[in-house]
Amino acid sequence: MTTAQAIKFESQDQGEETARADIYGLLATLLYAPPSQTLLDTIAAAPVQGDSGLELTWAELVAVCKSAQQEAVREEYEQLFIGVGKPEVMLYGSYYLSGFLMEKPLAELRTDLMQLGLQRSDDVVESEDHLATLCEVMRYLIASDDVVNANLITQKKFFSDHMQAWVVECCNAIEASPNARFYKPVARLARQFFEVEMQAFDMSLD
């Protein structure tokens, strides 16, 4: 089962934690690189139910995927996040937290990742503060069998230390871009999900 097929917000047998991990995993995939046509078609065929903010933004993404073509989405991704020179929209935490890339927030993140026993793979070109990488770390902290690190306390601390201060601003920047078509609903889904996460973390472990 693919990540997109697994996202069923109302499903009781799936479990909330699995759904959270699935959304983080899907966002990581969509933000790290342009999606394949197979993934676009899979999202387009995914179930849509419910009227919560998160469910409505998911329905919007499903609707956009019904007509999305891989090549057009690839061109949009490159225009938004790669570009010539400075990308139109930055996906790196250091940029939002310090105004520059490869700054102190990245060094602090690398220290925390090392303490979690995580390190960047040799075939990954993006720095660790890329939003896709951070989403993948969160997916790991939710879904992993690591009994030491995969727990709510670690999730809350990692999200608070490395994501909470800037991810909504990043999503807003994507949505505000006149060149965002496919990635506009991706950004809306991400922002809605991150806001739900913030509210849940605020209510937990206090």
From TrEMBL:
<keyword id="KW-0143">Chaperone</keyword>
<dbReference type="Pfam" id="PF02613">
    <property type="entry name" value="Nitrate_red_del"/>
</dbReference>
<dbReference type="InterPro" id="IPR020945">
    <property type="entry name" value="DMSO/NO3_reduct_chaperone"/>
</dbReference>
<dbReference type="InterPro" id="IPR036411">
    <property type="entry name" value="TorD-like_sf"/>
</dbReference>
<protein>
    <submittedName>
        <fullName>Molecular chaperone TorD family protein</fullName>
    </submittedName>
</protein>
<dbReference type="InterPro" id="IPR050289">
    <property type="entry name" value="TorD/DmsD_chaperones"/>
</dbReference>
